[in-house]
Amino acid sequence: MPSSKSPSPRNTHSPVASLELSHGPSSSSRQDSPSSLPQDSPSAPDAVEHPSIPQTAVEALRRSDRVRARPKHLEAYDTTVHTVQYPLSAHVSYSRLTPSYRSFLAAVTSHDEPRSFSEAVRHPQLREAMIKEIAALVANGTWSLIQAPAGKRIIDCKWVFKIKYRPDGSIERYKARLVAKGYTQVEGIDYHDTFAPVAKLVTVRCLLAVAAHHGWFVH
Fold this sequence. Notes:
By secondary structure, the protein is an alpha+beta fold. The chain has helices spanning 9-12, 14-21, 28-32, 44-47, 99-110, 117-120, 124-139, 201-214; strands at residues 157-165, 171-180. The protein has 8 helices and 2 strands; from the N terminus they run H-H-H-H-H-H-H-E-E-H. The chain has a two-stranded antiparallel sheet. The chain is extended and about 95 Å long. Residues 140-219 form the Reverse transcriptase Ty1/copia-type domain.
């Protein structure tokens, strides 16, 4: 029958021919669809062009809309960054100081006092000052070596170093003192009572007045 005639094979490949020949915007939907390309055509993938994505299509990075709160431990402090309107360096000047005082300040700031024994032992002057300090403590009988009491903690000691200057800024001497760490003592364990015998001037005058009235000898 004429009406039941099947389509010719030429018509089945006509969409592919139109796809290869068309380069306009209207063929973008067909180029994006891989089902429109025949699997047995080797030249079809080479003929397909993928248009570049415009910059306007790139989505912007998403920013968090979370409300930022101040930490609890900073509520008692002022963390606002303030701009100094009148900086100190613009109002402080050493031009009015005398030359001798300026040289004194320069000499004092040019030497750093050591804060530990490991720093002081490198200086020969401080090593000599420490030897003199130990010799003076031994000569005065400052301590006596005994057996440590049972259950008692020994109080440590430390070195304190100081550099003495003359009025012109030159170094007069290096000072080293060996002191006990009294702040490590615990009340009730290392000591019980604290006292500081201090005599007022009024008390001294009364004592001298009584001694003069009775003819006593004052030692």
